[in-house]
């Protein structure tokens, strides 16, 4: 999709469609009013006849015998809330995509936003229109010959809007990549596949190099915890390191660590069968690190950023771990595996130790579909945020508010740590029935002492579950890209 910025007024636009916003109360925004006047109060008439009431995201597409189609989009009340503005943009993008129109103009300069500036609004435009183009047909034998497209969007604004539009567009491309990796079937998207994807990203930028640890290397490094998971599968586990160094030489990098369980059966502590296919999404943390990397490459952000992925398949087999097994992690901690379904923390702990020792990070954030308990607590609205470092919590919350990819901070207190006590090893890999999201975070905290570390539990937010809506969400790429962009 081509994004163009022009100062030519919307009524002179020669393309296929005009996107015009209609509020539920009060004056029409300038762009809509201009067209309304040219059409002898046509839009006013539509409002009076209740054809368009202006409710947020209400959509009315009107073809004209001569001239561009009108795509009327409800805006609700002004000043418009951030989330409503995004809803309206998504409605506009989807109407444009599904209509016969392939090109459109939009002018939002006269819309009053509640607490967000026009720079934010342009980022949202880039994100919404690029984002609408996501489509997963990798595994269909017949591709759609005429897929709905948006060829170009002309934004009426001054030239400074261009950078923000591009930011939103890059973010949406990162999200689409994350979604695609998540939606891929688990017999294709294996740990080796994720490693190949990382290598492909490295060919896109001179600033990016990858380093992939295989199981032999992990054996050498003493990663007994990671290997206790990967050994249950014939798919070899990988730790994938992506080093993007476009910042000042020698500056400590910001590190993201993604959980990449490419399928989680639960292992010997086998999960129930219903809906188990959705455990292909247990690599969405990893996919979000890859998607964030893609966006950062597109934006050529001048930072040092390392993405690390702990990729393995959690399977029951003759080689799999059993409840009661005790393994030794890379940092020397012994772990009693009381439930083989708590495998995410087992692969992440060694990846965290490795990342900390190798990169001495300025900050380190892990992203994981870690616990059903987090989903029970926060539903599908917020990702869970755990950290003892208040500054880092603040930075992540701020990035989540601007991106509207929201998080909610949950406790990570000393008092919960004893729930991980084991009779036979240093710690157990589960903490019992209470505070499951927190005990998982406590487990990881044993491997990140003294670090500027946070943990994001995306179990509820990484994908839409069940039925027609089933599919990866691309979260928390918006949060992560904003978080990293704020570093410059
Ligand atoms: N990948 C799951 C968590 C999960 C479950 C995410 C459902 C999204 C939807 C994780 O590996 C897991 O199985 N966690 C267990 C931990 C328990 C055994 C302590 C869980 O949450 O039940
Ligand atoms: Mn599990
Ligand atoms: Zn899992």
Could you characterize the architecture of this molecule?
The protein has helices at residues 30-38, 42-48, 82-98, 118-131, 161-183, 191-202, 215-221, 224-230, 284-299, 344-359, 372-378, 390-403, 436-445, 477-485, and strands at residues 2-6, 17-23, 59-62, 69-76, 103-106, 152-156, 208-213, 238-245, 254-264, 304-314, 326-328, 334-336, 363-368, 383-386, 407-409, 427-428, 453-457, 463-464, 471-472. With 488 residues, the protein is an alpha/beta fold. It has two domains: 2-158, 3-Layer(aba) Sandwich (Leucine Aminopeptidase, subunit E, domain 1); 171-485, Aminopeptidase (3-Layer(aba) Sandwich). Strands 7-8-10-9-13-17-14-15 form an eight-stranded mixed β-sheet, sandwiched between helices. Strands 1-6-5-2-4-3 form a six-stranded mixed β-sheet, covered by helices on one side. The longest helix is centred in the middle third of the chain and has 23 residues, at 161-183. The radius of gyration is 24 Å and the shape is elongated. The structure holds ligand BES, manganese (II) ion (MN) and zinc ion. Residues 264, 266, 341, 343 line the site of manganese (II) ion.
| Bound ligands, each once | ligand BES, manganese (II) ion, zinc ion
Beta-strand percentage range:
15-25%
Q: Output the radius of gyration.
A: 24 Å
Q: Count of DSSP E strands?
A: 19
Please state the average pLDDT score: 98
CATH architecture of the largest domain: 3-Layer(aba) Sandwich
SS field, number of helical segments = 14
Distance between the termini: 27 Å
* Largest beta sheet: strand ordering: 7-8-10-9-13-17-14-15
Q: Examine the coordinates and then state which fold CATH places here, giving the name of the CATH topology of the largest domain.
A: Aminopeptidase
**CATH class categorisation of the largest domain:** Alpha Beta
Helical content class: 25-40%
Poorly predicted runs are: none
Shape, principal axes of CA atoms: elongated
- Number of folding domains? 2
| Class per helix and strand makeup | alpha/beta
